[in-house]
Each structure stands twice: as structure tokens, then as C-alpha cells.
Amino acid sequence: MANPFGATAGARAGLPVNARSVGSYDQYAGAQRAVDHLSDSGFPVEHASIVGSDLRLVEDVTGRLTTGRALVAGAVSGAWFGLLVGLIFSLFSEDAGSAVGLVLGAIVLGAVFGAVFGAAAHAATGGRRDFASLQRLVAARYDVLVDEAHADRASELLRGLA
């Protein structure tokens, strides 16, 4: 399958084989800014990679998950799905009145089914996970690696980056 981001990027599924670090950053934003600076300077960025090291999975607990919260979250999710289905069906409606009725009916039906399934899914856990959370992958360090043939030019361009 062709890679839309450049020919050499697809060939490097893992770490670049002949690459050198031209910058190391504590935050991903710093590494991203460095590669953007290289791109703005006309550097062939398809020879660059951002590699995160010392990865950790961080799970931020956002609150207690009760049956009521699961029910409401399911209802909201179901209502959105119902809105989508209702809008699609309304395209085939003869008049505006029945189109509005189709959309509203689909929203209500989606909310009811979503609430039931949300509450049932929460009950099925048996209290083993009574909290809501968001997971993210965080690296301790982000290195900008550049193919050896282009590393000297990249280092020179990044020296000017404040």
C-alpha cells in the first residue's frame, strides 16, 4: 500500500536504521516544533522521525461511574446516533413535517436504547470498574532522528531555533 506521507517513511516501519539524533526534547510539542522548523526551512522532512522513549501509560481518573452516569452517557450517545439515523431517513421524506417527526422520533428512540444499553453494560461489570477515566501514552523524552545523510544540515538548521 502506498504511503501518502512520503516514499521513505513507509520503508521505515520501525526505528530508522541509519539515523542520528539532532535534538532531544522533554515535551512532544518541542520535537514537533523542531520538525516544523525543518519543514519551514525547506528541509526534506521525510528523512526525519520523532521517537518517544521511556513510554508510560497514564490513566487519569475523571470521576466515579455510577449506574446513573452510565445511563445518561448511553442516552446522550444513543441520541446522537438517533439524530444521524433520523437525518438520513428524513432525506427520503415527502414533506417537512414528517421529516421533523422522523428526526425527533429517532432521537428519542436512540436515547432510550442508549440509556438501556449504557446501564446494562455498567451493571455487567459487577462493580469491578466503578470509575471513568481517560488513558494516554506519555514519553519521558522525544528525539528528532534524521537519516545520517541529512543529519548535519538538520543540526545546522536547528541551531537557529530558540
What is the CATH architecture annotation of the largest domain?
Answer: 2-Layer Sandwich
Largest sheet: 3 strands, antiparallel
CATH topology grouping of the largest domain: Alpha-Beta Plaits
Tally of DSSP β-strands: 3
Strand order of the largest sheet: 1-3-2
Helix content: 40-55%
How many helices? The count is 5
Uncertain segments of ≥5 residues (pLDDT<50)? 1-12
This entry's quaternary arrangement is: single chain
N-to-C span: 39 Å
**What structural class do helix, strand and pairing data support?**
alpha+beta
Mean pLDDT figure: 88
State which percent range the strand residues make up: 25-35%
Number of domains: 2
Can you describe what's shown?
- The chain is an alpha+beta fold.
- The chain has two domains: 16-60 and 139-159, Alpha-Beta Plaits; 66-129.
- Helices cover 51% and strands 25% of the residues.
- It has five helices and three strands.
- The chain has a three-stranded antiparallel sheet.
- Helix 3 (67-90) packs antiparallel against helix 4.
- Residues 1-12 have low confidence and may be disordered.
Keywords:
alpha+beta; Alpha-Beta Plaits; 3-stranded antiparallel beta sheet; 5 helices; 51% helix; 25% strand; elongated; disordered N terminus
Task: Give the SSE map.
Layout: H1 7-11, E1 19-25, H2 28-40, E2 48-64, H3 67-90, H4 96-124, E3 131-147, H5 148-159
Antiparallel strand pairs: 1-3, 2-3
